[in-house]
Design goal:
The complex is a heterodimer of chains A (234) and B (150). By secondary structure, chain A is an all-alpha fold. Chain A has helices at 2-37, 50-66, 80-97, 100-106, 113-136, 149-153, 155-166, 170-177, 187-192, 196-226, and strands at 42-43, 110-111. In chain A, helix 3 packs antiparallel against helix 10, helix 5 runs parallel beside helix 10 and helix 7 runs antiparallel to helix 10 (196-226). The chains are: A mainly alpha (234), B mainly alpha (150).
């Protein structure tokens, strides 16, 4: 009887070792797979990429618009001080959008998840904070007695776009932060479904593009205002 | 050949136990300190280590061949402890796990907490199997001594 129990203990003991062996093998393979998965890279064409080219074009257009302010013999609809202040704001914004991290990405042809993370952080710190919040928050607080009626009339639209731009990359941030959790993907699902590195990268780039759209629209208004080409609606 | 391999894994499991305990201790204590949690909670994390150490010590003291000569058991112990060490290494040094960088701790607590729960269960499996194998051992010795007397 006791001998029978001893045999049972031996069988159960070895069975438990087998289960532990199975668990351990599973977690080793899981970790090795995850280790290689989060190191996946995305190839892109660097500075000849369509989105990057669009970003560069918009930056050039903003610079052109902003440089239409001519301090000598100024006759725009804004006061000289206002025009000069706004020019500095635009220049700061362009500098923050065209930051060091974005320029590093432009020189790369292969991007990994850390590059995407850095680019997103640069969007939050440079574009959202230093450009939009520091330089253009006044657009959301315009008084109806402000000198330029076009801005006052479009205040709600600008406020909506401004608020959207501030939280534009929050979803991407959540996705990136959760990359330490396991996710199983195949080559087919990466091509046709979700590829975290590729999709996040292009989402962040498009956020830069949208921010530039907003600044460009404002710079168009600024150019008209400083060259006195504004249409006055009575 | 089997004896040599078994001897190797038998010694390796002690070494890996020490290394994995040091890694776990560092990460868990840092994690609890950073999160201002009560250190009493670390007992349930380190308890499997203590129990495993006790069972290994009993195996050595009483020379329980059912465990010490069991190559499958020694290999599995090394595998489980190896996974723990790999998880600790990734929590500390894998810079592609972004939540650790974001929080600024330089240790990825999310990932390590994910791994801790299932690996603790494998520890308990090893402890349980050790105890089972211990009980399966005794009878054989008595049979051997009886046969010798006969």
């Amino acid at each position: 009887m006791i001998e029978m129990f001893r045999q049972y203990f031996k069988i159960i003991g070895n069975a438990l070792v087998g289960i532990a062996f199975g668990f351990a093998c599973f977690y080793i393979l899981l970790n090795l797979y995850h280790y290689s998965e989060i190191r996946r890279t995305v190839s892109y064409e660097g500075s000849s990429n369509t989105v990057i080219k669009r970003i560069d074009n918009k930056i050039n257009m903003i610079n052109t618009n902003v440089n239409s302010f001519n301090p000598s013999g100024y006759r725009g609809s804004l006061t000289y001080n206002e025009a000069s202040k706004l020019k500095n704001k635009f220049n700061t914004c362009v500098k923050e959008i065209n930051n060091e991290t974005l320029n590093e990405i432009k020189n790369k042809t292969v991007v990994d998840i850390r590059d995407v993370y850095n680019l997103r952080e640069a969007y939050e710190n440079n574009v959202a904070s230093k450009c939009l919040v520091n330089e253009f928050v006044w657009l959301t607080n315009l008084d109806s007695s402000y000198q330029n009626q076009e801005l006052v009339n479009n205040k709600d639209l600008y406020t909506m776009i401004y608020n959207d731009l501030l939280t534009e990359t929050d979803y991407v941030k959540r996705d990136l932060m959760s990359n330490s959790s396991y996710y199983f993907s195949t080559d087919i699902s990466l091509l046709t479904g979700k590829n975290l590195t590729r999709d996040s990268f292009y989402q962040v780039l498009s956020s830069y593009d949208k921010a530039l759209d907003f600044i460009l629209q404002l710079s168009e208004w600024y150019k008209d205002a400083v060259t006195n080409r504004e249409v006055v609606v009575e | 050949m089997t004896k040599i391999i078994n001897g190797f894994f038998s010694i390796l499991k002690y070494l890996l136990l020490v290394i994995s305990f040091i890694l776990t201790f560092y990460i868990v204590m840092f994690m609890f300190k950073r999160l201002n949690k009560d250190y009493i909670g670390t007992i349930e994390i380190f308890l499997p280590y203590a129990l495993l150490l006790v069972t290994f010590t009993i195996n050595l003291i009483f020379d329980q061949k059912a465990v010490t000569k069991n190559i499958f058991y020694n290999l599995t112990c090394c595998l489980v402890l190896g996974v723990f060490i790999f998880a600790g290494y990734r929590a500390l040094f894998d810079k592609y796990l972004l939540s650790g960088i974001n929080m600024g701790y330089d240790i990825n607590f999310n990932y390590y907490a994910d791994m801790l729960a299932p690996l603790k269960s494998t520890f308990y499996l090893l402890i349980a199997s050790n105890i089972m194998l211990m009980f399966s051992e005794k009878r054989n010795k008595k049979v051997e001594t009886k046969e010798k007397e006969a």
